[in-house]
Each structure stands twice: as structure tokens, then as C-alpha cells.
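Q: I have two molecules that I believe assemble together. Could you output C-alpha cells for the complex as a whole instead of separate predictions?
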Amino acid sequence: KAGVTQTPRYLIKTRGQQVTLSCSPISGHRSVSWYQQTPGQGLQFLFEYFSETQRNKGNFPGRFSGRQFSNSRSEMNVSTLELGDSALYLCASSLAGTSGSTNTDTQYFGPGTRLTVL
Amino acid sequence: AQSVAQPEDQVNVAEGNPLTVKCTYSVSGNPYLFWYVQYPNRGLQFLLKYITGDNLVKGSYGFEAEFNKSQTSFHLKKPSALVSDSALYFCAVRDVINAGNMLTFGGGTRLMVKP
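A: Yes, here they are, computed for all two components at once.
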């Protein structure tokens, strides 16, 4: 099975612009989560989508948004980019039919998109 | 709120020696615990997880981890380190009652294995 794929792998933008990142989950996986990785803050959860619905959201401003399509592919969008948005954005997929204690699934991560904001 | 601590920023070990990477956690309910490894310019690669049952969990590449409920720890171990094990290791916890599918990560520990 192919792993989680993310496009593009590298992106350079300037302050004030917006950006869209894409994630294709492992075939059959219906949950997609997004994480931001920075040297200062580490790995932080952005949001999770399941069946085209946002199921959980981290503590990020409204400039960060996402969506999921019927084929489980997901996109995240960052508007009005700031220098501090420079980070590695990681997407993870899992089967995750439920979000409670019956969900013992593993999240598998893609290679990430490296976003640099100048 | 759930949290994870990895008290060592870096662990140095000689090739062939045993290694331990430490992790402690805090959750309000039962924890699901994970270890991931990250190589340069790569995403996170799953190593192993603890859900329930035997406290000693075996994973990929000869790694294992021991769940200790009383000490709220989930240390990663390997009996004999390889130079190729040098990478960044992350411990993560999922609070299945209060946080859905969200993983909370520790700050990471850089493992350096010297020949």
C-alpha cells in the first residue's frame, strides 16, 4: 500500500499571502489529522477530519482551516501568512472509525510540507 | 489536559550498547501511548504503541517500550544500538476519553549513536 502523500514538499511564500497544502491518506483510511512542527513549539495538533467533517480542533487561529473531500483527501489552508507560520506541516491518516476508547488505530504520517514564509 | 515530557534533549550511546529514551505522561483517563522516529527531512515513522495488556511492547527495528502505570512512564529501549538508529524520537499520548484522535507529543529526544 502506498503511504501518506503530501504535496508540495517545499513551499516559499511571503507575508500576507495564503497557501494550500494537500494530503492524500493511505487507501482505506478515513481520518486525516494535521500537525505543525516548529523548533520552538514542537509538534502541535491543528485539526482532524473524518467523513468530510472536522472532528477535533487544536488551539490555532482562524487563519488555519481545512477540509476533507469525499475520497478522504484533505487540504489545509493558511491565510494572511505570518513569519511564525514557517514550519513543517505534517499530515497523518488512520482508519479511526470512532474517536473513543474503541479506536486503537495508529496514525501514519506523511513526509510533510516545509513552508517558509519570507 | 494531556501532556508528555521527554526529559532529555539528547541521548548519546556507543554502538552495541543498550539505549533508553525516557518518556513520562499525564492524562485524565487511560492513555494510549506511541513512539515515533523522525529522520532528517522526513515525516514521523511509527515504532510501537501501548493500548492495553502486556506492559512490555515490542515494535519495529528491535525497539521495545515498557509501560509503567504507577510511574506514568513509557520508556523506549533497545538492547543493542546501531549507528543507523541516530534520529529524533518522539513519545506521544492520546487521551481517548477527552481528546478524541488527537496526539499530544513530547518535545523529542535526539539519539546519537557513535561507532
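A: One point stands out. The mean pLDDT of chain B is 93.
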